[in-house]
Design goal:
Two copies of one chain form a homodimer. Chain A is about 55% helix and about 10% strand. By secondary structure, chain A is α+β, with helices and mostly antiparallel strands. In chain A, about 30% of the residues are buried. Chain B binds a DNA duplex through helix 4.
DNA sequence: TGTATATATAAGTACTTAATTATATAATAA
DNA sequence: TTATTATATAATTAAGTACTTATATATACA
């Protein structure tokens, strides 16, 4: 059971941010595995700028963070975010998206630097 | 703990719908009390068409239902909706909006027909 | 019956969003 | 060093959203 109380305005902002299938799926994936931009490009079959712009929105509110690893930039979920418990509760009933990463591994396009 | 599994696409649709402060607050209120349109107009200090249009979006996905009572049309939450458990889980950590209805009662503008 | 009240809906408009295209930057490989 | 790869960002455009204004409908009341 979630304890943190949340402001309506901020809750609406978080819900709006997650109210997009691409971003919702990204966050669901990032909650389990770090991922780099090019993996998302392949998973969503979307353009690189489009993916970067979705990640930027998530990063702008601090829900995810970036970290360069060699030539790649990996994104990870920010478990210290004030509203991470709220987000996690929203993600919980959603179906696992692990299959999407498994497909990359099978195709050999999963990035595993470091 | 929520058991129902939910499709990503529909989840994103619900989150988008709730990702608006007016609609989120409406649903939070309706989860506890039925309300008529004119009460919402007063609570949100918004125009009547604006309120009607938000209610229509909620009604279009079946999350709320309308019922005429005399000259008023009351809205209530649809607890039988497939995703009501998901919605309820999202509402749970949000602050009670009871105060907004209390203020109407104090001003004598709360509708209590029937 | 006519008037007022409550609501819905249509049309128009301003704003926002999500994509594309074009370009810049940083790291790596040759 | 130059070319390639990975990424970000700016500018543009198309689509979607949330208001407003105007109007229609249904009920209640005089």
């Amino acid at each position: 059971m979630l304890k943190t109380r949340i402001e309506m305005e901020k809750a609406a902002m978080i819900l709006k941010l997650l109210g997009d299938q691409t971003r919702l799926t990204m966050v669901k994936i990032l909650d389990v595995h770090d991922c780099c931009v090019c993996e998302f490009v392949e998973i969503f079959k979307a353009s690189q700028p489009s993916i970067s712009q979705h990640l930027r929105k998530l990063r702008d509110v601090g829900l995810v963070q970036e970290e360069r690893r060699g030539q790649w930039i990996f994104y990870s979920i920010n478990k210290d975010h004030e509203y991470y418990p709220f987000v996690q509760q929203i993600l919980e009933p959603l179906p696992s998206q692990d299959q999407k990463l498994k497909e990359l591994e099978e195709k050999g396009t999963r990035i595993n630097c470091c």
